[in-house]
Every structure is written in structure tokens, then in C-alpha cells.
Amino acid sequence: MAITQNDFAHEKQRHDAEKPAFTENSENSPTDIFLDLTRTRTLEEIDIHNRSALKGDDSDGKVVFGVRGALAAVFLAGLYTGSQVILYFVGGSLGFISKDLKLASGSAWLPTANILAIAATCPFAGYLQDLFGKRYIALFGSACICIGIVLMATAHSFGQALVGMTVSGVGAAIGELTGLAGLAEVVPVKYRGYSLALVTAFVIPFCPYLMYVELWSHGNSVGWRWGPWVALMYNGVIGIGILFTYFPHTHTRAEGFSRRSIIKRIDFIGGALSITGLTIFLIALQSGGYTHPWVSAYVMCTLLIGLALIGVWIVWESTFAKHPMVPGELFKGQRIVGLAYFIAFAAGMNFFSLLNFFPVTFSSVYEPIPVQIVPIYIVKGERSALLGGKVFISRR
């Protein structure tokens, strides 16, 4: 039997050698179906690395990166940054906002409302993209940001300001996720690093936001409104740019699914549990030591109920949810994913604490004069960055 197989293989090899060959991907390749031909592929005709792939792997086609694609990349990077601008200016203006709106307490809920809206919307942003398309969801997110900013800029009551920050937070969640995802698609793989640098570059003009706040608010408590108006002008330009330049591919991960089936895959119970629990927990943290004593029934009840709901959410996601908000498969056999989540969580704690407490430090501890504040701000920031870099390098 072995001899028969060897003879057959040898005969097949001899027969293939006698066939005429043609080069695949060649313009002169024959098309006669009656010819018995052998294909020969040349490496020159094959883009092995798929440098202009639509995705980061080799599973998709190519990106036509022209002028419109470059402009779309610029506006998507701006959308990511624009989602955060209103949070910067409001977080740096809480003292002036409290004075203008005559708030005795509760001003810290303005940035908190924005952050909660982001947390509530982020898990469902992908489903919204599948249902309505990335272009329309990006435009919707930009519109929500602008509407929320207008409400905040024209607010003369705490309720209107709170609604404005919440609406802008919904848009910010969509804008941040859609901006990064869209940027990764419109830019070829070989330019991916430059596109990420572009995102960082758009943040640079807003880094000294505390200086801006002090300049237009010092001596005039109403001047804080310039922050929302500047954010509105910026996001308005970005939204118009996306309208005329961003036309993404129509492929989606939900291709072949009906809208009803997509909606059924949304974990509404998990979303309700997580947002309700987190909100009640934050109510306890915001009230303790300010409006109510830490040992009061109000603080203890909200604290325990919030923690209990968060615990129920964890049990629901890990045991009962058919399509959980955080799939367990993300962490199986991928240690780096868990580490990335932990690092992002720790970095977020630092970011939002600085966002809320850094302005209070400058207005309460130091004399609120821009020329004196900026050097302190730069020295503290650079010292923290150098220390963090030193720790990171030493750990390597």
C-alpha cells in the first residue's frame, strides 16, 4: 500500500510539473476555463503585512486614505477631546459657579453627574452603533455634547446645570468611544501611531484650563460661563466637520442580526443595577461629612444600599446574565486584560480627584492669581510625571 501511495504522489508531481503555469494577480493571466493551469503567486504582488488594512489584523480590506479621510481623522480626534472639555472647565469653576448660582452645597454633583452619565452610556455605545451606524451615532453624540453645554452655559439654577452636565456626559461617552474606534478605521495601520499622537495633541491647548478659568473669572463670578461657550465653539466646529467628512464603512459586528435581536442582547438589568448602585453609593460619599454626619442613618443607609446593589450586579453579571456587560471571556487566559482594567481604574481615580480637588487647592490654599498659580501647577505636574516615570522604569 505504501508503494502505491508513493507512486501516485510521484505521478501527480510529474503531472503538475508538465502543466503550463501563470502568475496570479498578473494583468495577463489567462482566463480560458479549458486550460489546465497551475497557479504561481509572487510575493511582489502580495501585501503580506496588509499595511493599509481597515482593522489592526489581516481580516479586512484596505483604507483609501485621502484628503477626506485625513480630515475625518482630525475631526474624530477632536471629538474625543471635545467630549472632555466641558468637564475640565466646570471642574475648575465650581467655586465661581456656586457663587453665581448661590449654591450653599452640592456643586460637586455637576462633574459627578457628567461622569455618571458617561458610565451609564459607555456599555451600550457599541449596541447603538450596531443599531444606527457609526456615522449617525457620532453625530448624535456630538449633538448631545453641544446641547448639554448650552444648558450649562445658560443655567441660572442648579437643576438646569445638572441636566446640562448629564446630557453632555451621554454625548461624551459616545464621542470618546466612537472617536477612538472611528479613528482606528479611517487611518491606515502604518499611520496608527501618528493618529494616537494626534489625539494627545488636541488635548494640549486645554491643559492650562485652570489658568483660563482664573483669567476670565477672577474678579467676576459670571466669567465662568466663558468655559462652556468656548467648549461649545470647539464642539460645534468638530460636529460640522464630522457631518461632512466622516462616512465610515457600513460593516458591523451585528451584520445579519435584526434590530429586535440586537436589543434582546442588551443587558438592561445589569445596566440598571450598576447605575442605581453606583449613584446611591456616590450620594453617600457626597453627603458624608458635608450635609449629613457620617454616622447618620441617611449616609449609612445609602452607603449600604449602594454597596449591596453593586454586589447584586456582580452576581448577576457572573451567574445569570446571558449577555453580560463585561463578558468573562475577556479575562480568560489573558492576564494583560485584567491588568489594563486595574491600571485604567487607578488612573481614573487620580484623574477625577485632580479634576475636582486641584482647583479647590489653588483657590483655597494659594492666592488665586493666574501668574502665581501657573508655575505651581507646572512644577507639581512635572514632579508627579517624573516620579511616575521613574517608578515605571525601575519596575521594568
UniProtKB/TrEMBL annotation:
Q: Where is this region: Disordered?
A: 1-29
Q: Where is the protein situated, by its record's location annotation?
A: Membrane
Q: Which PROSITE patterns match?
A: MFS (PS50850)
Q: Which Pfam families match?
A: TRI12
The entry lists its GO molecular-function terms as:
transmembrane transporter activity
Give the Basic and acidic residues compositional bias ranges: 8-21
Membrane topology value: Multi-pass membrane protein
Q: Which InterPro entries match?
A: MFS_dom, MFS_Str1/Tri12-like, MFS_trans_sf
The identity of this protein, by name, is: MFS general substrate transporter
Q: Which UniProt keywords apply?
A: Membrane, Transmembrane, Transmembrane helix, Transport
Q: Which residues cross the membrane?
A: 69-89, 109-129, 136-155, 161-184, 196-214, 226-247, 268-289, 295-316, 336-358
Instruction: Tell me which residues make up the Major facilitator superfamily (MFS) profile domain.
Output: 70-396
Query: Coiled-coil regions in this chain?
Result: none
Q: Which organism is it from?
A: Pleomassaria siparia CBS 279.74
Q: Where does this protein chiefly localize?
A: membrane
CC annotations in GO: plasma membrane
